[in-house]
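Board notes, transcribed. Complex of a protein with arginine.
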Amino acid sequence: TSNQMWGGRFAAGPDAIMEAINASIGFDRRLAAQDIAGSRAHAAMLAATGIISDSDAEAMREGLLTVLSEIEEGRFEFSTALEDIHMNVEARLKAIIGDPAGRLHTGRSRNDQVATDFRLWVRDQLDATEAGLKALIGALLGQAEAGADWVMPGFTHLQTAQPVTWGHHMMAYVEMFARDLGRVRDARVRMNECPLGAAALAGTSFPIDREMTAKELGFDRPSANSLDAVSDRDFALEFLGAASICAMHLSRFAEELVIWSSAQFRFVALSDRFSTGSSIMPQKKNPDAAELIRAKIGRIFGANVALMTVMKGLPLAYSKDMQEDKEQVFDAADNLMLALAAMEGMVRDMAPQRAALEAAAGSGFSTATDLADWLVRVLGMPFREAHHVTGSLVAKAEAKGCDLPDLSLEEMQSVHGEIDASVYDVLGVHNSVASRMSYGGTAPEQVRAQIARWKEVLT
Ligand code: ARG
């Protein structure tokens, strides 16, 4: 038997394989609430413009609410033969209200319908991502505030570079996640146009009111070109792009947490709530959440590449290729939300180890730059020469197996005669960080200013 929605010209039904490759109901059922909201707005508009009767529209709007509650309560029977969520809902509406249901699809197509549903879904997801990012940023601000003046090593090439403050390091991630927040907000502003009423591709001859449906669904305006409206998936790509960059940030932080929680570093203790044990090694406490967050970029960026590749080279207007958009976005969205929540929990729970951080901050000749700067400032030495002299002092300490502050004044003077005891002031890690008062620098005062600024912006 041919399809009840479009089978007029068909004598036979589809092959089972055709049905299997064609059906999207297995995943687009997640658009049920959006689909019903879109249909209810469309029905109201059809009545307001006199295209259908008020009583038909009322029956549709009521019936659609019944369908929604059936779906929400798990009482709805999805049918693969009905392909997708749009036809499943409409067929059920027909079973509930009868003939008036057949008028719902006046002046629209599944093409503008799915574009509208998916946009609504992605818009909700952008809002959820914004909330997730804000929660994570809140957790980071808490860590930054608690350890604004705690010292730790700063790295380049993962080699000790200069001492920094714990708060400064946390605030670097706040900057990253705040940019992610900005990307999500930008995307939402750009995507908030309503495709409904573009119909199949060319618009419709019915006197529809696209402003009305756009407004009802919370869009800023109807999309301006019907061909573009049904063909555009930029909003999904922008979400995936923002999600990819955010997942990349998460992976960098996760990597640091994996390193920092190792027995060799011991910079942080992760909570039991966000760690797992080993079934064979009793001593183990593994940072699995951090590792999984580190890995999530794989599928999220994968979704970005997949959808970009689906869209590449597609001629206008709608092609069934575009049905491949949803699973990628659903998977990326689910995993991004999970990663954000897990990271937020880990950050809230983790205990930075102040003593270990401070001990590490002073090792590895981390204040060598401070020493070179002292030679410039106090002895008036050109920086290049100061760099060389300091290098000799580092070599001396290394040969002796000690850190720079452990060299005696005599040993220092054997490298350069004019060095005096005031040099020891700059070799301490606290003085080192406190001196870096340049705007955006690691001095606790600067870090506290950063924290105050973000707190104000974000509340
Ligand atoms: N399930 C389809 C999709 O996700 C809905 C649109 C179908 N349109 C069509 N012309 N067959 O894209």
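Residues 94 and 101 are 5 Å apart (CA to CA). The beta strands are 151-156, 159-165, 193-194, 221-222, 268-269, 351-352.
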